[in-house]
Amino acid sequence: MKTDTEENRQFRILSALGIIFVVAGHLGYGVFDLGGVFPYYSFHVYIFLFVSGYFYKDEAEKNIGGYIWKKCRVLLVPYFLWNLFYGVLAQVLHGIGFSLGEVLSFRTLFLSPFIDGHQFLYNFSAWFVPALFLVEIINVLMRKILGVLRLKYEWLIFIVSLIVGMVTIQLAIGGHVWGIYKFPGRLLLMLPGFQMGKIYKEKIETYDTLPDGIYFLIVIGVQILISIFNAGLAFGVVWVTSFANGFAIPYLTVVTGIAFWLRIAKLISEMPVGSGKLVTVGRNTYSIMMHHVAVFMLIKGIFYLCSSLTPLCAEFDRELFFHDINYVYLAGGTEASKWIYLLSGIAVPLLINEMLGKVKIFVGKLISTYGRGL
């Protein structure tokens, strides 16, 4: 286990893998799902919940106000600034023929992010940020109350949250989680993922010592059996839908998916060469989550210009480009062209984050210099 002053490379790399799966998933590109054995949508959202739960510290319950303010500053403030940016962008693009995104309003700026997070579409992947914020607030308040009642036991918290999550799934299967009910349903569905990270750190990590060969044999074997006997493992966290296998299998696939990639992350972290880039990606998951869909649109915009100004890309579908955020143009008709989107969707947000970092440093120096002058 790492100390507070050390960077946990394994979990940085796990976060990097998770965001790569998110980007690939939005392209419908199963290049990393091991031939369908580990479908992204059966676990990838929960990687970030697992990581967040792992790094949760009980000290937060001593100063809940400070904890909530920190989470607002780190998660919500940048989210709402970018939400405003993409809201304005959507309005500008409406003026030139795009139908993507809703109209800029108080609701789409401040309420929709918590309700569904798909208000402007160009940043729809960031729906997870306000949801994670709420899960973390629910977690700290719940733990504080249980502490006062002397019922704060990790296994109890995990089991109860898991039961609540499975009840939510069963209600969704029965058609009872619809409309506004998807808002609380999503949070209850996500909460066990956060608790998995916490209980792994507190109760399981010390015993996670199986040799790699046996470990992968068990995890992959269980996953293959799940795949054989169930009707598709993917499900939709944001919309609380597509539960084809009852209330328990979704969480089982969350466990197997995270278990597999957690050990892969550990192996990569021990490599003397090659892991540094993934660590960098893992430090910038927020930016990648926020911007990669917009980067996809930028890439498609380049293809659109090629189709309009040159004989190239003649099969580009301009109608879908203007009206369907999920349209992916395959250059040359080959799936391999999705690598253009995938690499750009990761690299460009990294550049955005780096540029913003430099701007903050420059502004900080200006303020410091100006302050001394006064």
Write the layout of secondary structure elements.
Elements: H1 9-25, H2 44-54, H3 64-94, H4 106-115, H5 128-148, H6 154-173, H7 182-204, H8 212-229, H9 249-269, H10 275-283, H11 285-309, H12 318-323, H13 338-373
Describe the fold and architecture.
The chain is mostly helical and 374 residues long. It has helices spanning 9-25, 44-54, 64-94, 106-115, 128-148, 154-173, 182-204, 212-229, 249-269, 275-283, 285-309, 318-323, 338-373. Helix 5 crosses helix 7 (182-204), helix 6 runs antiparallel to helix 7 (182-204) and helix 8 (212-229) runs antiparallel to helix 9 (249-269). The longest helix is centred in the last third of the chain and has 36 residues, at 338-373. The N and C termini lie far apart (47 Å). The relative contact order is 0.14.
Low-confidence stretches: 1-5
- Estimated helix fraction: 55-70%
**Radius of gyration, taken over Cα atoms and rounded to an integer in Å:** 22 Å
CA-CA gap between termini: 47 Å
**H/I helix tally:** 13
Outline the biggest β-sheet.
none
| Overall outline | globular
Q: Count of DSSP E strands?
A: 0
**Helices and strands, in N-to-C order?**
HHHHHHHHHHHHH
